[in-house]
Amino acid sequence: MPPTFKLYDTMTRTVKPLETVEPGHLRFYCCGPTVYSHAHIGNFRTFVNADLVVRVAQALGWRVTYVSNITDVGHLTQDDAADAGGEDKMARALASKDGERFNSVWELAEHYEQGFRNDWNRLNLREPEVRPRATQHMREQILAVEELISQGRAYETPTGVYFSVDSFEDYGKLSGNRSRDDLKVAVREVVQDDNKRNPADFALWKKDDKHLMQWHSPWGWGFPGWHLECSCMARAYLGDTIDLHAGGEDLVFPHHECEIAQSESLTGKSFSNHWMHVRFLQVDGEKMAKSAGNFYTLRELVDVRGFDPLAVRYALLATPYGKPLNFTLTNLEAAERHVRRARSAAQRVSEALGKPFHQVEPGPTRWDRVYDEALEALCDDLNTSVALARFLEAIKDLTKEESWTPEEAVEAARLLRRFEDLLGLIGGERTSEEAAEPTEDAAWIEQKINERAEAKKAKNFARADAIRAELDAAGIELRDSPSGTEWVRRPQA
Ligand code: AMP
Ligand code: ZN
Q: Which atom of ligand 1 lies nearest, measured to the CA of 33?
């Protein structure tokens, strides 16, 4: 009997079995990044745990339809308020020093989306079936606003179209922000518009004919509110009711609360049957966040400090997702030792086998108990502490063997393959190849360094200085030496 997959559900505040509407088919939506800069590894704590859900479901033999979006419009800076104010994060990034190298906000979005995908691959995350962009689903969003207006749950004012939270009785059921006082606290920085019926009402559409990304709508030029995109994209790819919805803990309120209000009003059905929220990755007891300046990016840890990307994956999984995790370089160093040990055990097995261990189909082995216990632990609300301990136990066992007969090598490879499918900590052929490839950012930097060298050769020192300044603005420092020019990324924290 396979174990029952149980997860904490934010809505019911209990650990309960993850049930699927269609037996054996998980429809899963995880809110993706806003591509205004490089994601930090706090963001990836959320995605690595979402990845684990996918892997556990697959290990149980389920089919998984996994959708994780790209937010490329509408996410404003004061996003802890339901009806956020402030600037669009994308527009602000373009206006910043770093944004100077992009011709348009579209180019900036593309650049950081590409960077995000590189990081995603290097962390050995399973590719979602669909990775939709908010800007490519404008039609669905406009139709949804029209439908909500016709239901009498949304109304137009001079600044936009707002969702009336009083029209949705269940508003607050996920976060527990139900009483008027709670909501007042939660919405302290809302958009000031005297025409709003209730200050807690949040924007579905913002009128703005000066915005860098704007669309024509029945309410004039403007752009959608951030919450709307996920309601529309989840429905487009996964149907009216999804099995599981995930994100970081900050999304419980307002983002997911607002998604529920919109989606359940539109369909009259339950939006998601299970809600998973990943606790923050912290630095010195504080949330790792761009705004706090206390963050690490994967490229800094890997390209500048030389860590193995899968050590970062390991470190992000070492504490179960429901507990806060304090990130330190010391923990990362320990994680790297574990990952190295696993890699070298895998290499020895592959050598004895005469081909990469991935090429062996997973199958029963004499170590099934260790694997089964790891899977059981993950089915128990993703208990990664136990699962990783079992993984290390298996690696230790393999390391003890001095030599392998061909049959033993096949059995060891099967075990590694099963653990790799479940935890993704050794790295497949895909990951090792891609890890060796320069990132798109690195390629751009190398190209600039070559151009600078050419300019110097041609005695065009103004051009050479301009290139150095351009790199400097992007956080890259150059160090010239007799053997050539090296670059380092300035630490961002
Ligand atoms: P954003 O790019 O800000 O939209 O965030 C992308 C995802 O990362 C969301 O699910 C956030 O909740 C999550 N997130 C942001 N900061 C952290 C953190 N420090 N630890 C874990 N998850 C985070
Ligand atoms: Zn979302």
A: 2
pLDDT < 50 stretches in the chain: 430-438, 492-493
Check if 247 has its Cβ closer than 6 Å to any atom of ligand 1.
yes
Judged on CB neighbours under 10 Å (0-12, 13-18, 19+), 97 is: exposed
The residue to mutate among 10, 43, 73, 233, having the most atoms of ligand 1 within 8 angstroms of its beta carbon, is: 43
Distance between CA atoms of 244 and 264, rounded to whole angstroms?
15
Cβ–Cβ under 8 Å, residues 94 and 105: yes
pLDDT of residue 430: 43
Residue labelled with tokens 């930090």: 40
Distance CA 84, CA 226 (A): 9
CATH of domain 297-434: 1.10.730.10
Contact 280 CB / ligand 1 (< 6 Å): yes
Half-sphere exposure of 483 (CA within 13 A, CB side): 2
Positions of CATH 3.40.50.620 in the chain? 6-278
Question: How many other CB atoms are there within 10 angstroms of residue 268's CB atom?
Answer: 9
* C-beta of 34 in contact with ligand 1 (< 6 A): yes
Kindly state which CATH superfamily the domain 6-278 is placed in. HUPs (3.40.50.620)
Instruction: Answer whether the bond into residue 364 is a cis peptide, omega within 30°.
Output: no
Determine contact, residues 222/207, Cβ cutoff 8 Å.
yes
* Residue given tokens 């937010």 in the structure block: 71
Nearest CA to ligand 1 atom 6: 33
Residue intervals of the chain classified under CATH 1.10.730.10 are 297-434
H helix runs in 244-362, sequence order: 257-267, 298-299, 309-317, 329-353
For residue 225 and ligand 1, the question of a CB distance below 6 A is answered with no
The arrangement of strands across the sheet holding 281-283 comes to 286-287, 281-283, 325-326
* Residue 250 CA, closest ligand 1 atom number: 12
**Ligand 2 centroid from CA 82, angstroms:** 13
Contact 30, 278 (CB under 8 A): no
Distance, CA of 288 to CA of 299 (rounded, Å) = 16
pTM: 0.86
Instruction: Give, using CA atoms, the residue closest to atom 5 of ligand 1.
Output: 33
pLDDT in tens, 178-227: 776 666 555 555 567 889 999 899 999 999 999 888 999 999 999 999 99
Q: What is the pLDDT of residue 230?
A: 97
Contact between 346 and 395 (Cβ < 8 Å): no
**Residue 389: enclosing H or E segment and its boundaries?**
helix 384-400
Using a 6 Å cutoff on CB, does residue 49 contact ligand 1?
no
